[in-house]
Amino acid sequence: MGYARKVGWVTAGLVIGAGACYCIYRLARGRKQNKEKMAEGGPGDVDDVGDCPGARARARARATRARRAVQKRASPNSDDTILSPQELQKVLCLVEMSEKPYILEAALIALGNNAAYAFNRDIIRDLGGLPIVAKILNTRDPIVKEKALIVLNNLSVNAENQRRLKIYMNQVCDDTITSRLNSSVQLAGLRLLTNMTVTNEYQHMLANSISDLFRLFSAGNEETKFQVLKLLLNLAENPAMTRELLRAQVPSSLGSLFNKKENKEIILKLLVVFENINDNFKWEENEPTQSQFIQGSLFFFLKQFQVCADKILGIESHHDFLVKVKVGKFMAKLAENMFPNSQE
Ligand SMILES: *[C@@H]1O[C@H](CO)[C@@H](O)[C@H](O)[C@H]1NC(C)=O
Ligand SMILES: *[C@@H]1O[C@H](CO)[C@@H](O)[C@H](O)[C@H]1NC(C)=O
Ligand SMILES: *[C@@H]1O[C@H](CO)[C@@H](O)[C@H](O)[C@H]1NC(C)=O
């Protein structure tokens, strides 16, 4: 079945509404249990919004406003994909209840499409959808897991959703690193982590995974490399992460990237990551502590960057002019910072 047909199938199922009442009953019961758990002093961080009677009314009002706005400029097909809060709730029920991968997958696709609209990100959260989708991450089925990651990625373009999704970041990070190299599920995880790190707020949660990210970068195919670079760039732009980046272990093969006929864009983007780190590190202030960086760290790699640079700048190098200019400039700046006394 194609995606469109699957989504259509779920939507049709919703209209018929088979089993939906039981679903909603379950959902309501789940919420009540949540409430009780919290009353007992359980974790307050669970998605609790569905609890208050006002939430659903708010969600409905918000949806009505948004639907009106969308309908004004709607294309004839858009009605198929924009679901009402009631319908979204049913889809969430399916996600929560269904054990059949193809139903889960279809429900997740319908949710993901809806989460592409900003107003639905709030509604799905208000309906208690974040923990329901996040729970799917425990599945072993990589296709279902990938779909859940895509839904979370679309939902994560929202500050409040990010605040609630941060509790799943470690799990997503571990899953991403241990997934099969270059797989779709790994890429989906990397995209979610990238979206979760567009602001500085939750970046520190990845501090211990930077070595693994460099490993994925070195071993992965071009698509993996680009996605890891986006994530590393987010981290490198944040001065609070500079030390964590320099401390990370990098694979020895990172240097050989510069000899190979590597994609020019990958080398240039990696240089931007390095430049940000170089610019953000307070070299003079940190001089006494530089001995803390151990062999194999990014710090050491940069210290020996001259070797890579020589290969790129060498007469027989195949690299193009722009790459050479950028590498030359970066090397000069790095040398100035790292070896200030050796400059004449
Ligand atoms: C996620 O949102 C984008 C738009 O931001 C949309 O193009 C895409 O189809 C959505 N993903 C899924 C799985 O629905
Ligand atoms: C979030 O991720 C999606 C897919 O990777 C991307 O299209 C979108 O621009 C990202 N949003 C932000 C705010 O970075
Ligand atoms: C991932 O891509 C790299 C580079 O193309 C390749 O060497 C590696 O074997 C791939 N790994 C898997 C598991 O497909």
TrEMBL record:
<keyword id="KW-0472">Membrane</keyword>
<dbReference type="InterPro" id="IPR011989">
    <property type="entry name" value="ARM-like"/>
</dbReference>
<dbReference type="InterPro" id="IPR051303">
    <property type="entry name" value="Armcx_regulator"/>
</dbReference>
<keyword id="KW-1000">Mitochondrion outer membrane</keyword>
<feature type="domain" description="Armadillo repeat-containing">
    <location>
        <begin position="83"/>
        <end position="302"/>
    </location>
</feature>
<protein>
    <submittedName>
        <fullName>Armadillo repeat-containing X-linked protein 3</fullName>
    </submittedName>
</protein>
<keyword id="KW-0812">Transmembrane</keyword>
<dbReference type="InterPro" id="IPR016024">
    <property type="entry name" value="ARM-type_fold"/>
</dbReference>
<comment type="similarity">
    <text>Belongs to the eutherian X-chromosome-specific Armcx family.</text>
</comment>
<feature type="transmembrane region" description="Helical">
    <location>
        <begin position="6"/>
        <end position="28"/>
    </location>
</feature>
<feature type="repeat" description="ARM">
    <location>
        <begin position="128"/>
        <end position="165"/>
    </location>
</feature>
<dbReference type="Pfam" id="PF04826">
    <property type="entry name" value="Arm_2"/>
</dbReference>
<dbReference type="InterPro" id="IPR006911">
    <property type="entry name" value="ARM-rpt_dom"/>
</dbReference>
<keyword id="KW-1133">Transmembrane helix</keyword>
<keyword id="KW-0496">Mitochondrion</keyword>
<dbReference type="GO" id="GO:0005741">
    <property type="term" value="C:mitochondrial outer membrane"/>
</dbReference>
<dbReference type="InterPro" id="IPR000225">
    <property type="entry name" value="Armadillo"/>
</dbReference>
<keyword id="KW-0735">Signal-anchor</keyword>
